[in-house]
């Protein structure tokens, strides 16, 4: 907005309608010590209070009492700095200065009756004041947060606002648009009726992913209409090459709290006289009754008042048309990928947000009128809404506009920078220009009051009225002023303003009155005065109009009663002579006079005779000098017959034999009417039907040919009725065009291909009527010749074969035997490399699909100017320029400096194949090193940005320099010793080229480049000196080859090369004999070795065949066993699936899930603890913990807190994980903030590992951020785990448990017969049999159950509980320790069974656990589970116990007696842990159990579980259903971090993703099913899951695992499956990368919903004083770090933490 620079400011209240004539005094308020900036009115018209916002002041004026000052409030200057956060004190802001407070926003909340004021100080904070008294502050925050900074803190940066009540009336919000000063959003929605006041939610803003400074918004106004809010602003169009400023209109739904519906479209105000001239910068705007938008535009950003070329214009935009344009943009972006056929991309995603237009269902716009989280946003349109300027001026820049509507007519008031107020009526004519104050700009707040009777103008110290009706004393002067507010009363003979009942008013701009006026009463009889009598008695035929009081020649008056004259006289003056007539003796009336010249436009006879007979025009004279004249003026003979027709021109001169060609015959004397030549026009002897509507008298005949039936030619003839016959000099040909072939025969469906159709006689008919159709789609004709037609294909909506049709007017020709094939569009998937030297020529390999259909591939490089300086830097330059003489400054205007020429460079590419195009980079100038480089590949009509297909941004590097080989004397040759390499020195050699791209030659020979560094090139020359190239021979040195190096377009000649000749060495004869004897001995030894090797090879082959037979037998055995086991397992799983239909999968609730994930090593979860402090201190501690919770909401504090803890060596990894989980719970209600913290910490972690080894990042949970990431993934993927992967995982868990329980499991060692883990494999061949028992009892129903006779009693009870309570979750079942197993052998035979009793077998120091076999329980026996006498435990006994369950008695000793179950521990010797799984170390075991016995068990187990493992991996890695938003968002974040830190190694990025998702989440879940299910785990089941988890982890790594004899058997089991799983992982990562990016807005919306739903499930006040202590010992270091940070010091973070420590620890600290 514009602000005056003088100290004197004035507010004028100018009356639009006045009641007095002279001596008027207009209300005025002025101050000399400030500058008025904003103006608002009280919402109640009866109150009439006016509020003015000024620099350092607020004023409250009484508008009904002459703008009398009621109250004044001083708001500045104050101590402030743009770099300081409020509150500003000398302590926290030593560089603060006295700063003026400019009023940035002045708004009225009509519902709350509050005045909202925002200034430029204190980061643009706001206050609420009373409308009754501006001195009464209703709300102001002393310590605002960053979301409460509303206005721009720079006086020169614009801010606009709007107070709106949302639907329902519960809430009132304030929409704010502000220009760039910091990282604040340009548009946001602020709270006014809910806490925190003036703050905005994370999603309630316009998200800008790019740099705000590049856009540089300048907001002009905002308004609301219906259910939308509109913003008008201008900014840079960074999508265009010129980066010009353009005006935009943006719209968002009132109810849209996430800005999903945000759309902006350009506004263009185009000159009505010159189509190419536009006014592109909006200065002010106003609405007209909610239907139209009036805007004043200029062509410049700024202007001086004396600049005469500062053109401005007024444009009007219908708001309904604006809404249609916006809705069309949304529909294109929702349903058509933003594309329009033939126009390319029209709608797109702005502000570099990671989203893109989609292809959603066609009814998306109707179904989601305000968008949704799945619709793309923010949207923008490339197609502008244009309007023609209705009024323009070049005198000064327009700065303000207001609109008033009076009696259905619109009056616009336009203020300009020179202090002039222009008044424009509804006819768009300026009826007055009022100079308010010379060279004093009128402020844009140009307001009309609610009644429309007053206008308020803020300007300097001059006052002028808007309407001067009282200055007009007669009708003529009154009406000539053309003021819509002024009129003349004919009956009363005076001026009037407005409408008075009972009188007549004359508002016309012409006063047709002669003599004096007479006032007649509207209700009295019409009596003629003497003047009336003189009028009606005049011999001139004048009539008298009573009510208009005029004497007129018209037959009737426009209104009212007419008194007619008895004499009627008519005068018509013919020719070009004017007859004189006498003056009347009575009153004069106006007479109509007609002047007519016969010769004008009648150059031939036929035209002359068509003139109206009343004018008397005749064709006069002979053949040589004839002309059309008035009959009385003809001195020669009058010709009554016209000459024969003359044909000058035929167009076209050919047509198809079918006819239908529209032929234009031009000439003279071609008849006077179309009927004269109706049936007498022939072309080549064929009748031509005349088209009457296009006939022009005498000069042109347009006719349509009929069929000629065959090819023929001849002249055109015209015979005029009653006249002669005319023939054309040109010959017309009826032709039969023929199509023969087409080339090329295929092209992309996007169009843009050049097509040539060959044939004969193709130049038939008018070129404009020749069209080409390809399957119904037009092909734009470029050139037409006799033998070929060239056209450019347009886009088609389908691929396949299409017929070719050429239309010659109404005739069609079809190409027989050939079709055109529309292929899928070419697509580019990758382009590399991404660097080039300035001279260009480097080959860019462009990969993709369907590339061979491109005809003219090009590579275009656009160099845009670098980023402009920030505002502060620009101001410093301006200040420095103040002392520079004017002649040394840049005199270019601001817009000329802005419109920089953007150079473009192109190079032609070569199509190598359908998947490869080779593009040499174009040469550019040195400015490319400083400019922003944009690279595009132009594939006919399709354009691809390098940034979308390349791995990194494209850049140009300095040209390399190579020094001559002989640097001492380049004119001398370089001596080369054969056998050595040639070393060339230089600079910048490898910046933008690889060694295989460099071509080095010596003459005609190639010097193979072996090494290329920044400063050296090493190449291996030919063994023999190459010959000299014929083109390089020179006088004197033509015998030596030249050494040349080619690097792209660069060619270096580095001198000539001379090979040094070697003297032949003398080799003694004795040495030659010795060498021969030695060679013979070596040959004999080699022969002996070969014979021995052949014998050994045969023996090895026999052994190999024997082993191969054994392996085949083994494979057959394993296959049969797998089939049987798998069949049994599937039968069991089907039974279990039917059981799950009723009970469902036993998922844990979210709280239990979170407890086990966050605190896996803690039995007593902090979520379940109560505050453990004395009651006397409870309130103090609770307050301290609440303060700590509030302190955690400071991002600066939290990051400093975490970084300080992590550098403490005594802060263990366990403590770090614990603190991270506590923070996760504390921030669970603010997951958006939690995510922001995680991103910040992750960025710091990346920087830390990039300096060391980036591949090690996230490998272990050794830092707080790594544990935070684990928790974040667990929160975000809980729903996916339950809904997608949970079922497959549970089925795998149940399958493992079923298979393991089928065989013996040692209760002491935990080893099982059926397992995947060889360390847990029971290698002994234990005899056992399956028993089917009947379980009964008083508390349970009788059910059959399968057990093993070798099971211990505890194992039997576990299986019985599992099968009896199979529909009940584990935590609801009775614990086995609370039950006895009772064998019922008869009516009274009840025996309690136990693991140990007096019957247990004891052998020496070994005691065996009792089994069913020990008690000789038979098959079919009845057993019962009966409660113990102790308390029956149900739920409490099943609380989650963290950690892996250990075997029952792991080699434990009980009074010197060692327990054993199936095998004794000494018999199952354990290997060292680091050698477990190694086949080589098991030689001792093979004596007891050969590998076939136990390896087949592993293979059998693996084959049985294979389907369930595949199902689980597919569920995890499938992209057939939507990928979790958190996974996509985090993977994109890792890609951005890699790009930001120049990490191009794909393996590193793959490792990061693997460590963040599979390692950090899935492995944790796979190893711990109890984290998600309410189930019982055991060590033997966990052992199987650990193998599967390790297989999953191996599948996620890129490195190939080399397997050998020492490889663990666990890896050997899945060696053949891991490559397949790796492909699944790679495809999963690739599919995620190709999906639409998840924007911050979408992610924050999802996180907010998670917080809302899940946070109440957690115990919100979880803090416990014990949880506080892991970090309390480091408070001194934390506070020290906070005190060292200036920003933290200003926020007093250290002091606040000190107070918390004192409250929680109950002591006064000295920190």
TrEMBL record:
InterPro entries: Ig-like_fold, Ig_E-set, IPT_dom, Plexin, Plexin_cytoplasmic_RasGAP_dom, Plexin_RBD, Plexin_repeat, PSI
Annotated transmembrane regions: 1073-1093
The Sema domain, residue ranges: 13-468
Membrane-topology descriptor: Single-pass type I membrane protein
GO biological process, one term: axon extension
SMART domains to which the protein is assigned, alphabetical: IPT, PSI, Sema
Swiss-Prot/TrEMBL keywords: Cell membrane, Coiled coil, Disulfide bond, Glycoprotein, Membrane, Phosphoprotein, Receptor, Repeat, Signal, Transmembrane, Transmembrane helix
Family per similarity comment: Belongs to the plexin family.
This protein's name: Plexin-B1
Gene responsible for this protein: PLXNB1
């Amino acid at each position: 907005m514009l602000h005056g620079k003088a100290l004197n400011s004035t507010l004028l209240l100018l009356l639009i309608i006045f009641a007095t004539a002279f001596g008027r005094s207009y209300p005025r308020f002025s101050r000399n010590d400030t500058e008025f900036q904003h103006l608002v009115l009280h919402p109640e018209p009866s109150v009439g209070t006016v509020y003015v916002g000024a620099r350092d002041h607020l004023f409250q004026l009484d508008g009904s009492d002459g703008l009398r000052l009621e109250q004044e409030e001083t708001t500045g200057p104050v101590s402030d700095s743009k770099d300081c956060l409020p509150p500003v004190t000398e302590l926290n802001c030593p560089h603060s200065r006295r700063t003026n407070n400019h009023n940035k926003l002045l708004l009225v909340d009509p519902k709350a009756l509050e005045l909202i004021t925002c200034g430029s100080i204190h980061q643009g904070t706001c206050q609420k004041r009373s409308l009754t008294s501006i001195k009464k502050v209703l709300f102001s925050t002393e310590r605002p947060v960053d979301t409460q900074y509303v206005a721009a803190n720079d006086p020169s940066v614009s801010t606009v606002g709007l107070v709106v009540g949302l639907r329902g009336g519960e809430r009132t919000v304030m929409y704010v648009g502000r220009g760039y000063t910091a990282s604040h959003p340009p548009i946001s929605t602020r709270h006014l009726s809910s806490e925190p006041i003036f703050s905005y939610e994370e999603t309630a803003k316009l998200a800008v992913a790019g740099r705000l400074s590049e856009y540089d918004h300048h907001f002009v106004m905002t308004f609301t209409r219906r259910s939308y809010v509109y913003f008008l602003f201008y900014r840079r169009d960074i999508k265009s090459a010129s980066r010009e400023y353009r005006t935009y209109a943006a719209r968002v739904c009132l109810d849209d709290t996430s800005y999903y519906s945000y759309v902006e479209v350009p506004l263009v105000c185009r000159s009505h006289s010159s189509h190419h001239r536009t006014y592109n910068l909006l200065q002010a705007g106003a609405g007209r009754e909610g239907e139209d938008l009036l805007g004043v535009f200029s062509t410049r950003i700024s202007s001086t008042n004396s600049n005469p070329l500062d053109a401005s214009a007024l444009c009007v935009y219908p708001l309904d048309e604006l809404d249609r344009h916006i809705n069309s943009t949304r529909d294109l972006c929702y349903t058509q990928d933003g594309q329009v056929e033939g126009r390319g991309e029209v709608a797109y995603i702005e502000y570099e947000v990671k989203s893109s237009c989609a292809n959603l269902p066609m009814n998306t716009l109707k179904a989601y009128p305000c968008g949704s989280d799945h619709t793309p946003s923010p949207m923008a349109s490339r197609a502008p809404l244009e309007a023609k300027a209705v009024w323009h001026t070049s005198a000064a820049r327009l700065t303000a506009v207001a609109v008033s509507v009076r009696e259905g007519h619109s009056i616009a008031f336009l203020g300009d920078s020179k202090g002039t107020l222009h008044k424009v009526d509804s006819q768009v004519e300026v009826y007055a220009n009022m100079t308010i104050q010379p060279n004093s700009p009128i402020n844009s707040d140009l307001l009309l009051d609610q009644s429309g009777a007053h206008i308020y103008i803020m300007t300097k110290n001059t006052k002028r009225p808007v309407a001067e009706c009282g200055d007009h004393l007669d009708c003529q002067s009154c009406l000539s002023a053309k003021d819509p507010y002024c009129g003349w009363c004919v009956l009363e003979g005076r001026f009037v303003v407005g409408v008075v009942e009972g009188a007549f008013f004359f508002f016309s701009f012409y006063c047709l009155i002669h003599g004096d006026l007479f006032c007649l009463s509207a209700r009295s009889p019409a009596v003629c005065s003497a003047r009336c009598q003189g009028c009606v008695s005049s011999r001139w035929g004048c009539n008298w109009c009573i009510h208009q009081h005029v004497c007129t020649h018209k037959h009737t008056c426009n209104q009212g009663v007419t008194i007619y004259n008895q004499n009627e006289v008519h005068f018509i003056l013919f020719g070009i002579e004017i007859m004189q007539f006498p003056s009347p003796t009575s009153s004069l009336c106006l007479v109509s006079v007609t002047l007519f010249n016969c010769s004008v436009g009648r150059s031939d006879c036929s035209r002359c005779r068509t003139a109206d007979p009343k004018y008397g025009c005749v064709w006069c004279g002979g053949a040589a000098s004839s002309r059309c004249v008035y009959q009385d003026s003809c001195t020669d003979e009058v010709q009554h017959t016209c000459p024969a027709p003359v044909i000058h021109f035929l167009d076209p001169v050919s047509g198809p034999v079918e006819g239908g060609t529209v032929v234009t015959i031009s000439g003279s004397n071609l008849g006077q009417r179309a009927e004269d030549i109706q049936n007498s026009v022939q072309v080549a002897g064929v009748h031509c039907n005349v088209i009457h509507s296009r006939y022009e008298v005498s000069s042109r005949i347009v006719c349509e040919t009929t069929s000629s039936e065959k090819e023929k030619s001849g002249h055109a003839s015209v015979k005029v009725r009653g006249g002669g016959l005319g023939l054309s000099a040109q010959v017309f040909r009826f032709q039969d065009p023929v199509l023969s072939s087409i080339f090329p025969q295929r092209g992309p469906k996007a169009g843009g291909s050049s097509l040539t159709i060959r044939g004969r006689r193709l130049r038939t008919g008018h070129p404009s009527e020749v069209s080409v159709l390809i399957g119904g789609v037009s092909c734009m004709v470029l050139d037409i010749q006799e033998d070929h037609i060239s056209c450019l294909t347009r886009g088609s909506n389908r691929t396949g074969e299409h017929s070719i049709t050429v239309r010659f007017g109404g005739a069609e020709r079809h190409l027989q035997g050939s079709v055109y094939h529309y292929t899928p569009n070419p697509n580019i998937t990758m382009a590399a490399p991404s660097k080039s030297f300035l001279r260009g020529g480097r080959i860019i390999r462009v990969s993709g699909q369907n590339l061979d259909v491109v005809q003219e591939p090009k590579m275009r490089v656009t160099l845009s100017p670098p980023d402009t300086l920030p505002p502060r830097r620009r101001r410093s330059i301006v200040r420095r320029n103040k002392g520079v003489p004017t002649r040394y400054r840049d005199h270019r205007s601001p817009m000329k400096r802005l419109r920089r020429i953007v150079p473009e460079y192109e190079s032609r590419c070569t199509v190598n194949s359908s998947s490869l195009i080779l593009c040499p980079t174009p040469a550019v100038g040195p400015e490319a090193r400083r400019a922003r480089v944009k690279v595009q590949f132009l594939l006919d009509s399709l354009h691809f940005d390098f940034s979308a297909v390349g791995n990194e941004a494209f850049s140009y590097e300095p040209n390399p320099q190579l020094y001559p080989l002989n640097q001492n004397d380049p004119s001398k040759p370089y001596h080369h010793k054969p056998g050595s390499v040639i070393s060339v020195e230089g600079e910048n050699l490898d910046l933008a080229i690889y060694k295989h791209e460099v071509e080095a030659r010596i003459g005609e020979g190639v010097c193979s480049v072996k090494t290329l560094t920044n400063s050296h090139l090493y190449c291996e020359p030919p063994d023999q000196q190459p010959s000299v190239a014929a083109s390089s021979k020179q006088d004197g040195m033509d015998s030596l080859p030249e050494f040349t190096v080619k690097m792209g377009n660069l060619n270096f000649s580095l001198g000539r090369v001379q090979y040094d000749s070697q003297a032949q060495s003398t080799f003694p004869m004795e040495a030659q004999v010795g060498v021969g004897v030695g060679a013979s001995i070596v040959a004999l030894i080699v022969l002996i070795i070969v014979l021995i090797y052949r014998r050994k090879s045969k023996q090895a082959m026999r052994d190999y065949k024997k082993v191969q037979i054994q392996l085949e037998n083994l494979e057959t055995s394993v296959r049969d066993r797998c089939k049987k086991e798998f069949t049994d397992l599937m039968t069991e799983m089907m039974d279990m699936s039917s059981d799950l239909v009723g009970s469902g999968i036993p998922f844990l609730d979210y709280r239990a899930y979170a407890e086990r994930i966050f605190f896996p090593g803690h039995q007593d979860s902090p979520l379940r603890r109560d505050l453990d402090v004395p009651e006397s201190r409870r309130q103090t501690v609770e307050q301290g913990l609440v303060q700590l919770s509030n302190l955690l909401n400071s991002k600066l504090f939290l990051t400093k807190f975490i970084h300080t803890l992590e550098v403490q060596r005594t802060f263990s990894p366990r403590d770090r994980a614990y603190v991270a989980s506590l923070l996760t719970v504390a921030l669970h209600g603010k997951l958006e903030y939690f995510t922001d913290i995680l991103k910040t910490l992750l960025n710091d972690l990346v920087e830390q590992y990039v300096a060391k080894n980036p591949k090690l990042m996230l490998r272990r949970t050794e830092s707080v951020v790594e544990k935070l990431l684990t928790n974040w993934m667990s929160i975000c993927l809980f729903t996916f785990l339950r809904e997608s992967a949970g079922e497959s995982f549970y089925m795998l868990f149940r399958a493992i448990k079923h298979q393991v329980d089928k065989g013996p499991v040692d209760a002491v060692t935990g080893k099982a017969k059926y397992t995947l883990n060889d360390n847990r494999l029971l290698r002994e061949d234990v005899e056992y049999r399956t028993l089917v028992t009947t379980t009964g009892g008083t508390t349970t129903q009788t059910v059959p159950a399968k057990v093993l006779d070798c099971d211990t009693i505890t194992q039997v009870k576990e299986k019985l509980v599992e099968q009896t309570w199979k529909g009940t979750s584990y935590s609801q079942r009775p614990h086995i320790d609370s039950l006895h197993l009772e064998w019922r052998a008869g009516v009274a035979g009840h025996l309690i069974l136990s693991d140990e009793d007096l019957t247990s077998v004891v052998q020496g120091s070994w005691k065996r656990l009792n089994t069913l076999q020990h008690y000789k329980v038979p098959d079919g026996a009845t057993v019962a589970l009966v409660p113990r006498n102790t308390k029956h435990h149900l739920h409490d006994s099943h609380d989650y116990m963290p950690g892996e369950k250990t075997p029952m008695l792991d080699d434990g000793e009980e009074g010197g007696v060692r327990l054993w179950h199936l095998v004794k521990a000494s018999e199952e010797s354990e290997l060292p842990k680091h050698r477990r799984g190694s086949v080589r170390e098991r030689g001792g075991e093979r004596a007891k159990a050969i590998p076939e016995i136990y390896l087949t068990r592993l293979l059998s187990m693996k084959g049985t579980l294979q389907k369930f493992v595949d199902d689980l991996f597919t569920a995890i890695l499938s992209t057939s259903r939507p990928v979790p938003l958190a996974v996509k968002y985090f993977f994109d974040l890792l890609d951005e971090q890699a790009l930001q830190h120049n990490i191009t190694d794909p393996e590193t990025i793959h490792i990061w993703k693997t460590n963040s998702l599979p390692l950090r989440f899935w492995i944790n879940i796979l190893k711990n099913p109890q984290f998600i299910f309410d189930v019982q785990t055991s060590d033997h089941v966990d052992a199987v899951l650990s193998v599967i988890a390790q297989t999953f982890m191996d599948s996620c790594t890129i490195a190939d695992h080399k397997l050998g004899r020492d490889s663990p058997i666990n890896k050997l089991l899945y060696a053949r499956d891991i490559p397949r799983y790796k492909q699944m992982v790679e495809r999963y990562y690739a599919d995620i990368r190709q999906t639409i990016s998840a924007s911050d807005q979408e992610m924050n919306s999802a996180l907010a919903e998670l917080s809302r739903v899940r946070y109440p499930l957690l115990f919100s006040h979880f803090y416990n004083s014990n949880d506080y202590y892991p970090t309390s010992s480091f408070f001194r270091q934390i506070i020290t770090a906070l005190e060292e940070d200036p920003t933290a010091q200003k926020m007093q973070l250290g002091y606040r933490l000190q107070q918390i420590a004192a409250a929680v620890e109950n002591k006064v600290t000295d920190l």
